[in-house]
Structures are given as structure tokens and as C-alpha cells.
UniProtKB/TrEMBL annotation:
Keywords (A to Z) from UniProt: Membrane, Transmembrane, Transmembrane helix
GGDEF domain segment(s): 275-411
A biological process term (GO) from this entry: cell adhesion involved in single-species biofilm formation
Entry-linked PANTHER family: DIGUANYLATE CYCLASE DGCM-RELATED, REGULATORY COMPONENTS OF SENSORY TRANSDUCTION SYSTEM
Organism this protein belongs to: Kutzneria kofuensis
Family matches, as Gene3D superfamilies: 3.30.70.270
GO molecular function terms listed in the Swiss-Prot or TrEMBL record: diguanylate cyclase activity
The protein's name in its UniProt record: Diguanylate cyclase (GGDEF)-like protein
Signal sequence residues: none
Entry superkingdom: Bacteria
Amino acid sequence: MAGFELWELPARWIAYAVLVEAIALVAALASFTRGEITDVALVRFAVLLALGMVQAELSRRIERDRRRMSGSTHINMTSIWLIPAVLMLPPQLVAVLCVALYTHMWLRIWQHLHNVTLYRTVFGASAAIVACLAASTVAGTPLAERLPEWSWSVTLACLLGGLTFELVDALLLAVSINLRNRGNAPLTELFGSWDDNALELTTLCLGGLTALTLVYQPLFTVLLFCPIVVLHRSVLVKELEAAATIDVKTGLLNAITWHHLASQELARSKQDQRATVGVLMVDLDHFKRVNDTYGHLAGDAVLKSVATAVKNQVRADDAVGRFGGEEFVVLLPGVDEAGALVVAERIRKTVGALYVMAPQEGVPIAGLSCSIGVAVHRSSGTTMERLLLAADTAVYRAKRTGRNRVVTTVDKRDAA
């Protein structure tokens, strides 16, 4: 989706983006009638702007690499500087700081990346302006004085300001992502994963610390650069690790990682003679028709929806991976043949009930089905290679006998 031209996006998303940008513009202009711009505010504004630009320059390569790998949900470090602005500056300077920081990020980092477009950057900046001004209205600039006396009311105002910023910004971006995906975006894409939200919370905390440091010990502000840059770099390292283990199109484990985890689980089960392990091979029926009829982007949307459906029908500890093409594999530790058949049938029915919107045309894709092969440790084989071969053989039998069914292989002659 990130590479779409503006005219290829849904009309509802374009209308929504224009609405948010108009609200941001009106709110920013209206903010110039609120709050007095003092010398202290101007100095703090200049310091925050300088800090934000220096931090962006120091992390420029890190941010580029993260942007190249990111999907719809991308968390940058700008909130570290916007939160202090909300708590310390009059609203008009907050709006100007938003525009300045996003303009700098675009010119210095984002404009040469193929998956970052100008219209998305403008929308992101607009959402940030709306969130900042909403937070400023709620918080009431509790740290505006040169040395404000700390109290519980100041503490509450700071907390409410940060919470308002986070909720408004998250909601605006979630609606944008949902409209851009024509209502077909999973919850983790709308609001981010647990790791995404942990990072967002960390940036908000750092923003609060930055505000307190600037107000009460401004010379110590330079000490914040080290943890901020290290945090940014550690996030990149984690994303690189995820990229090496996760299938990009579906978000599932890739084949190599799944096979490694499955082999480890099978080795553990061999130490207990009573332990069982189930393996499911899930193969979409007539997937080529989807690509030929609706295009490869629609095919990718179907793969992603099916991956989410499969993952939602198994336990959190079960390993789900993309085996290749339109094939998925599921590892079910501690599950016997009867249990594996129940899970497989549940997956088959869920896939059959899917309703996927083609990304570009907005045409509904329904009537999907899958053939599932079931293999169980010992009855179907005692090595992972034998289990996968047994499950694949069962899928072939399901295809040959009509598709859209679950078939198990328990022939003792196939066991190693």
C-alpha cells in the first residue's frame, strides 16, 4: 500500500485525509489567537527544534533503514520533542514545531524512500498537529512558567496531556490505515503490536523527562541524546531480527524459522514417549485464479487475511508459518490426531467464511477454500521431514478428491 500513487487510493481515504488536514490547518491558525508567546517560550521552542533536528541527523541512517522495512505502523521519535512542547509552549508554537520537525524529516530522510510519499507525510504531520493541539487544550500548558511549582495538579495535567496526545494520534492513524485497506486491516496493523505500543510508551516517557529536564535542569538535556539514539538503534536491530524470521507478506514465521522451531519442539517431544505433536499443511484452493482475476495485490491481501485467520484459530504457543506460495504450516505441540483434526476443520471453515476486499478495485473476494493435510508424530512419522511429507501427501489427496476438505495420513507404513 505504501507505494500507491494518490489517485490509486480509496476515495474515502482521500476525503478523510483532506478532512484531517483541513482540521489541522484551521486549528493551527486558530491557535495563534491563544496563549502569549513569552521570551521563555521562544527560547524553549528554539531548543526543542534544535534538539529534534540534531537527533534526526544523528539517527538519519537508522530511520531510513526502519522506514524501508516498516509497514503501515511506523513510530518515529518526534513525540520525544512534541510532548515537551505540549507541556511547555503556547499552542501556536506547538503547531509550528510540528511542521518544522516533519518538514526536516521529509527533506533530510524520507523524500528519497520509495515507500514514503509526500501525501502520507503531510497526513502524518496533520495528525500530529491535531493530537498536539488537543493535548495542549486538555493539559493547559502546565510547565509554561520559568520554574513552575510542582503539585499534584501539575502532575495530573502532564499525564492527561500525554494520554490525550497518544489517544488522538493513534485513533487518527488507525482510521487512516483502515480506510486505506478498505476496512480489511487487522487490529495489530491498526493500533500496532505490543512492541509498537511499548516503543510509543517509551517515547512518551522520554518526552516527559525531556520536558522536566528543560524546565528544571536544562544543561542536563544533552544527556538525553545517548539513550534516545541507542533506543532508536535497538529498535532497528529488533526489526532486522524480525525481518530475518518473519514472512513479509503475511507476518507469519518464514519457512526456515518455522522448521527450526518445529524441529526443536519435536526433539523435546521425543524425550516423552506420551507426547504428541500435530502438523497441519494448509493449501489455498485455486489461488492462481485470485491473482489472474483480481491481480497480485489482491492475492497478497488474501494471503494476509488467510494468515490472520489461521493464527486466530490456534493457540498462542502454536507455531504458524508460511511454507511457500499459498501454503501454510501449523505446529500443534501436545495435540493428538483427533485434536489436530478439530483444529484443521475449524481453520477450513474460517477460511471459507473470509470476505476480502481487493485493494485497488475494492471488489469483494469471497468463496475461498483450502485443503488441509494432517500429520501426527509417530503415527505419521518420527522426523519433521517425514511429518511434512505426510502432511503434504494428505493435502495432495484432499486436492485430488475434491478440495475444501481435511485429510489425515496415519498409515503406519509411512512412519519412520
